[in-house]
């Protein structure tokens, strides 16, 4: 009897409570005592652990959220007891503690998750060549040794390379390329991902580079703005950490805030003085209507709304007098807006019909922005993650230029997103390189566009450029990191691809979507289990993290995995990864760390290093003088540059250019901001999908608002009368943390539907609904809300697909089950407008996500 | 000897639930166990909706019904006004749960006992802030002697979504949106 | 929320059955003695049965506790906690039952202790109800709880006493005095039912006008359990009515043979009250933020 009870207990904890279902330091919880060995805590040990004071170690919070915050882990006997955040400085609005958000705070549940991958696993029915490939996603998992796992991966690489070629091996991320490039390379992927049309375009028309630079001023200058327009950005959800707090300071300093968004966001509630609901993907039309208002009403003497001086000195293409040499003068922006040549004036009324914003409101906002002295025109990437949005960033710039809200204190126009949310400018402090030699060149030039790749693989042909289609025959996919199958548009096709190719392998922490559809999964360590490094987010601070715990189970660092596979391919460890030890790599990053000098003109070493440090670390290096010692860095885990208004570290984007455009030209063909940009049009054309005009004309989104109608002018709705947007949601950083039980409880991941749409469909709050697009179906529990513009639903970004294969319906609310892979313009992945519909689900009600079984293997 | 209390700036709270998670981490809680919970409320109608968030844990009340009704004396009020609980005495009768209009006491299924917010008394002893306070990215939670909090933040104690304050007399000071 | 409070349902019902039965039996003893009937063979086995019943009730209540290893602590806070008082009083009542039985077993007079025991029983029921009245659950914070608990005590007491007579008495001992007593007792039980029915609308109205939680309780009762509520009263009324009817209809035969009607009536009353108690627990929705 007792034995039976014990068995039941053992069974229970192997399923549910590895390290306790709550990672609780309580009796019976299981902790890794050493590598490959588990130890069950006795009541006495648990008590001891609870009461003993551990060491606080700066721990990585490493995700792709754009924020960076300080996280510290209290470690007792190699076990993390709890985490805390920044308490290394006095907290003030000028110099806030870098406090971690809800996700970072739940990271113990991630690292110690019941569902962590513990051992290399093989799909049970896998055979060389794939075996029954249809079973991917549903097969059982079998534990294998590292030796067997790397054997399989290396031999499949060899087999596929020999049978097909290196052009049949697709790598979606990670550093496995280091090994593959030694044997002839691999196909890659590329796209605009989160950035949408802001990623590559702005550099062509002059609004800064797009990745590191976002053409907005720094957070302290934001307090000089009298009016802040938050156009399609919700920092409260998308940029947790300090940004929303920084915005609050600007608000407290007196700024009015207008929020233009399909959803009444938490940011709108906190900051907004006015919410302007807009149909997704129609921002460009709305802004054209605003531009029309200014052109129509402007009178330089009696009603100056347009900053003609700025337009003349800093831009080209606004009207026929400002066209660059050689360009058709009729193709100017002003005439487009007025409809001089196409007969369609882009009036507020015209914009209203598309955007859903009343014409009166459009005019009022336009006047408001134009007649306020200091305005921050800020936008997120969301309105640009739309198919056909190629001209939107240029439009945004154009409106900023017309109103002159650029490049001066309190005046800025650009992207406020990711690490640059509400805080533009170069980094004030940064880490150094790790000294690992660069990888071998990749001999395969092919790279697939995200929005096309699943189709391309299924069809065997991809777009390499303008009038340039090439054959492709992908037979192996290596997901070295990331969440490609979950986060690329057109997931249904992606799943088909994964059931078709001969071999799929994933490095990961859990049975993520990538892993679920793989043949081999390799358990990777988290940064908590690694040597250490730096993380950066906002420009003010640099975060240092070091090893917190030993690797769990048989998890290995990605670098180690790549090295071992490289060795199985016949190379030495040095040939794959160089011979810089992890310790030396960390040291190099510390030694190379730089901080802005007092004058704000150049950088100087951050960390003081002594000969004693070097010998204690057992590394090679030179002593240097910096601001802080290694031990201070090791203890605090953060270096933050002290800020105060008027200091030397402020940033006004493109300030020098505005002051003297001739002396400080931009890197565009004309040296100016190009409202007419041949370069942009040429760039877009060269990608090979769709084309745009040199001026920002409105191109309705594919599957945009207009497409919800069968006949737009007759206002006759079509089969998919609604649009779906994919807000970033605090349960996850993209896909990461979706499985985290604490976050599942806090953020249930309901689909937001407007009261009007719900009423029309007989759906009540809490009902399970089926959301359906042309491309797929998903189930979610409905959150019926007044916070959405009717006609739009909000399906939160990043949930891990959970297919009911029989019904062909996803149950997790995966955003990309609904999206179609339709490549446009500059290879934009489009998320924030997919046309769809929803209805009450007549089948079994969905269980709350927090009650779902974890994917424990 | 004084009375500890919380201050909530519900005008500034963005409902991120960071405090809820920090509390779970500090207290090692499982799904379904929340010592601090952020409640979301929506209202108004399009295009003028609103959304409110209320973060709440034990209010360390002046008239803690949980203490009054606890048969074992496990639930007790300390000299500093913190409503604390003696884990060893608790018999898991849930009487305190039936006595608290704020869901303060929480039943821990695996232990068969109730536990709740103890104001992170161990952190207070080390001169550290309670986990929820130091977690708030909006700096919307403060704590301290209730009289000092009232001096600093005003005397409003009621929250739109709260039951009658006279039932237990919670020790909170609240700034809430005017509506 | 608390629909699974089976241990408490049984504890309160068994406890009230024990208290009620004890009191009605003592009343019967008093009346019968006045009529010169002194050979009360049912007394000792009934007392023993009640002792066992009360002990079972207390054991039942233990199942409600999440952790019983320190159950004795549960008496510590009797100064302010009605739950502690309830446990204490239930224990005292049990102890007094044992004492009453012991005294009665040794053929000594229980005249004095029976009063004390009855008083402890009444105090126990009062404490039981007070436990719920002093919560923050509007459906319980009402005089209705006292009426329900004492009502059950009376109704169960009458039924319990009748059962004791039937089970522990030999038929030949039953005289018309027993029947006459049971008739009167039946009317007392009917009175207990009527009082509750009179208060019911007052109670429901107060829920309707109360806190959100009160209204949720009301909604729950009417939306999900309207039939159960109706059944609860139909059973009790039918059972009570049938019982009284049987005492009249079969008055002459009762001393020789107990008709099936009576068993049916007893069952109806037992189930009716049980259903009532079930509803009491499931309708207990605590006040909360919202």
Automatic annotation (TrEMBL), chain B:
Q: Does the keyword Repeat apply?
A: yes
What is the name listed in the Swiss-Prot or TrEMBL entry for this protein? Anaerobic dimethyl sulfoxide reductase subunit B (DMSO reductase iron-sulfur subunit)
Q: Output the lineage of the source organism.
A: Bacteria, Bacillati, Bacillota, Bacilli, Bacillales
Species annotation: Salipaludibacillus aurantiacus
Q: Which cofactor does it need?
A: [4Fe-4S] cluster
NCBIfam families documented for this protein: DMSO_dmsB
What region holds the 4Fe-4S ferredoxin-type domain? 4-34, 47-80, 81-111
Q: Which InterPro entries match?
A: 4Fe4S_Fe-S-bd, 4Fe4S_Fe_S_CS, DMSO_DmsB, ET_IronSulfur_Cluster-Binding
MF-aspect GO terms? 4 iron, 4 sulfur cluster binding; metal ion binding
The source's superkingdom equals Bacteria
What does the record give as the function of this protein?
Answer: Electron transfer subunit of the terminal reductase during anaerobic growth on various sulfoxide and N-oxide compounds.
Mind listing the UniProt keywords for this protein, alphabetically?
4Fe-4S, Electron transport, Iron, Iron-sulfur, Metal-binding, Repeat, Transport
Q: Which SUPFAM superfamilies match?
A: 4Fe-4S ferredoxins
Signal peptide range equals none
């Amino acid at each position: 009897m007792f034995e039976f009870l014990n068995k039941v207990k053992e069974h229970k904890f192997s399923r549910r409570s590895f390290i306790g279902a709550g990672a609780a330091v309580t009796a019976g919880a299981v902790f890794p005592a050493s590598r490959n060995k588990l130890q069950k805590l006795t009541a006495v040990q648990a008590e001891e652990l609870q009461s003993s004071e551990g060491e606080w170690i700066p721990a990585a919070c490493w995700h792709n959220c754009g924020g960076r915050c300080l996280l510290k882990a209290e470690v007792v006997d190699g076990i993390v007891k709890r985490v805390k955040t920044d308490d290394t400085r006095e907290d003030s609005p000028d110099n806030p503690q870098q406090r971690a958000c809800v996700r970072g705070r739940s990271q113990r549940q991630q690292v110690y998750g019941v569902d962590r991958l513990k051992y290399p696993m093989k799909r049970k029915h896998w055979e060389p060549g794939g075996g029954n490939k249809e079973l991917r996603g549903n097969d059982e998992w079998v534990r294998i040794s590292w030796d067997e796992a790397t054997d399989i991966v290396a031999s499949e690489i060899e087999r596929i390379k020999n049978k097909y070629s290196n052009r049949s091996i697709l790598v979606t991320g990670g550093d496995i390329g280091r090994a593959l490039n030694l044997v002839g390379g691999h196909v890659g992927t590329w796209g605009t991902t989160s950035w949408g049309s802001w990623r590559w375009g702005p550099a062509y028309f002059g609004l800064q580079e797009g990745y590191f630079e976002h053409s907005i001023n720094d957070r302290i200058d934001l307090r000089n703005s009298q009016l802040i327009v938050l156009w399609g950005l919700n920092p409260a959800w998308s940029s947790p950490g300090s940004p929303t707090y920084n915005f609050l300071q600007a608000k407290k300093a007196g700024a009015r805030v207008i929020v233009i968004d399909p959803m009444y966001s938490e940011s709108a509630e906190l900051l907004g003085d006015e919410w302007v609901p807009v149909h997704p993907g129609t921002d460009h039309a709305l802004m054209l209507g605003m531009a029309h208002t200014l052109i129509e009403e402007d009178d330089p003497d009696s009603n100056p709304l347009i900053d003609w001086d700025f337009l003349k000195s800093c831009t080209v293409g606004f009207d026929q007098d400002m066209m660059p040499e050689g360009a058709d003068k009729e193709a100017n922006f002003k005439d487009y807006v007025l409809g001089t040549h196409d007969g369609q004036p882009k009036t507020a009324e015209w914009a209203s019909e598309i955007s859903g914003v009343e014409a009166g409101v459009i005019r009022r906002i336009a006047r408001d922005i134009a007649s306020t002295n200091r305005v921050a025109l800020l936008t997120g990437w969301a309105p640009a993650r739309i198919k056909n949005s190629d001209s939107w960033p240029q439009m945004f710039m154009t409106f900023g230029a017309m109103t002159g809200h650029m490049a001066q204190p309190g005046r800025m126009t650009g992207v406020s997103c990711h690490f640059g949310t509400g805080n533009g400018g170069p980094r004030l402090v940064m880490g150094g390189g790790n000294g690992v030699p660069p990888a071998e060149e990749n001999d395969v030039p092919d790279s697939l566009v995200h929005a096309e790749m699943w189709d391309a693989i299924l069809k065997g042909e991809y777009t390499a450029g303008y009038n340039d289609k090439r054959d492709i025959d992908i037979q192996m996919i290596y997901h070295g990191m990331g969440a490609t199958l979950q986060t690329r548009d057109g997931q249904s096709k992606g799943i088909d691809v994964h059931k078709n190719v001969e071999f799929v392998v994933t490095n990961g922490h859990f049975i993520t979507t990538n892993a679920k559809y793989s043949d081999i999964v390799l358990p990777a360590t988290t940064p908590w289990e690694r040597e250490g490094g730096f993380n950066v987010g906002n420009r003010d601070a640099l975060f240092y993290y070091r090893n917190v715990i030993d690797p769990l189970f048989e998890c290995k660092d990605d670098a180690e995995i790549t090295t071992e596979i490289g060795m199985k391919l016949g190379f030495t460890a040095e040939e794959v990864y160089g011979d810089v030890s992890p310790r030396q790599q960390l040291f190099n990053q510390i030694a190379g760390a730089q901080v802005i000098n007092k004058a704000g003109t150049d950088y100087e070493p951050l960390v003081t290093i002594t000969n004693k440090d070097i010998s204690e670390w057992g590394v090679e290096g030179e002593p240097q003088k910096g601001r802080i010692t290694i031990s201070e860095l090791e203890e605090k885990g953060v270096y933050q540059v002290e800020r105060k208004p008027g200091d030397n570290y402020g940033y006004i984007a493109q300030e020098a250019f505005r002051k003297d455009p001739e002396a400080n030209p931009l890197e565009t063909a004309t040296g100016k901001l190009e409202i007419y940009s041949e370069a942009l049009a040429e760039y877009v054309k060269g990608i090979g999908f769709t084309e745009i005009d040199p001026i920002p004309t409105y191109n309705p989104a594919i599957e945009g608002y207009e497409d919800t109608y069968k006949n737009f002018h007759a206002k006759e709705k079509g089969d998919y009368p609604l649009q779906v947007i994919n807000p970033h949601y605090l349960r996850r950083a993209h896909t990461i943390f979706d499985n985290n039980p604490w976050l599942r409880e806090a953020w249930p991941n309901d689909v937001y539907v407007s009261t009007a749409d719900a009423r029309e469909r007989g759906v009540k709050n809490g009902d399970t609904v089926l959301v359906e697009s042309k491309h797929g179906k998903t189930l979610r529990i409905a959150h019926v809300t007044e916070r959405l513009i009717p006609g739009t639903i909000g399906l939160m970004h990043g949930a891990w697909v959970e297919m009911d294969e029989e019904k062909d319906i996803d149950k997790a609310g995966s955003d990309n089950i609904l999206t179609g892979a339709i490549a446009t313009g500059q290879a934009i992945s489009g998320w924030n407008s997919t046309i769809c519909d929803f209805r009450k689900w007549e089948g079994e009600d969905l269980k709350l996500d927090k009650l779902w079984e974890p994917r424990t293997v | 000897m004084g009375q500890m209390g919380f201050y909530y700036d519900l005008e500034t709270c963005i409902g991120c639930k960071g405090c809820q998670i920090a509390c779970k981490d500090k207290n090692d809680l499982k799904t379904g166990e929340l010592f601090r919970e952020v409640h979301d409320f929506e209202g108004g109608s399009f295009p003028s909706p609103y959304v409110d968030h209320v973060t709440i844990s034990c209010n360390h009340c002046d008239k803690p019904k949980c203490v009054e009704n606890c048969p074992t004396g496990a639930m007790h009020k300390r000299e500093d006004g913190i409503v604390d609980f003696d884990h060893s005495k608790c018999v898991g009768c849930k009487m305190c749960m039936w006595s608290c209009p704020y869901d303060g006491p929480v039943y821990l299924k695996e232990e068969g006992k109730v536990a709740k917010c103890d104001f992170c008394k161990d952190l207070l002893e080390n001169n550290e802030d309670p986990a929820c306070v130091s977690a708030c990215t909006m700096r919307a939670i403060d704590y301290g002697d209730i009289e000092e909090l009232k001096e600093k933040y005003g005397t409003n104690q009621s929250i739109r979504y709260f039951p009658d304050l006279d039932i237990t007399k919670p020790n909170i000071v609240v700034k809430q949106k005017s509506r | 929320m608390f629909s699974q409070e089976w241990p408490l349902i049984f504890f309160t019902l068994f406890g009230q059955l024990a208290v009620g039965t004890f009191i009605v039996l003592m009343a019967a003893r008093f009346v019968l003695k006045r009529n010169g009937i002194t050979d009360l063979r049912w007394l000792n086995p009934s007392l023993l049965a009640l002792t066992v019943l009360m002990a079972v009730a207390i054991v039942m209540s233990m199942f409600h506790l999440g952790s019983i290893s320190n159950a004795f602590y549960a008496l510590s806070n009797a100064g302010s906690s009605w739950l502690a008082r309830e446990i204490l009083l239930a224990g005292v009542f049990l102890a007094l039952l044992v004492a009453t039985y012991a005294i009665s077993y040794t053929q000594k007079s229980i005249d004095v202790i029976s009063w004390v025991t009855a008083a402890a029983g009444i105090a126990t029921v009062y404490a039981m109800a007070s436990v719920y009245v002093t919560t923050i659950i509007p459906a319980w914070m009402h005089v209705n709880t006292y009426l329900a608990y004492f009502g059950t005590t009376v109704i169960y007491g009458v039924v319990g006493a009748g059962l004791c007579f039937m089970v522990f008495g030999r038929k030949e001992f039953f005289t018309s005095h027993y029947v006459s007593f049971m008739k009167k007792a039946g009317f007392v039980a009917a009175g207990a039912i009527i009082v509750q029915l009179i208060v019911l609308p007052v109670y429901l109205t107060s829920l309707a006008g109360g806190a959100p939680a009160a209204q949720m309780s009301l909604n729950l009762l009417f939306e999900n359990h309207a039939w159960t509520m109706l059944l609860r009263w139909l059973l009790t009324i039918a059972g009570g009515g049938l019982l009284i009817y049987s005492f009249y209809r079969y008055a002459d035969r009762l001393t020789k043979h107990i008709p099936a009607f009576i068993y049916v009536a007893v069952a109806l009353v037992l189930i009716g009250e049980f259903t009532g108690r079930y509803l009491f627990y499931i309708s207990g929705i605590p006040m909360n933020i919202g």
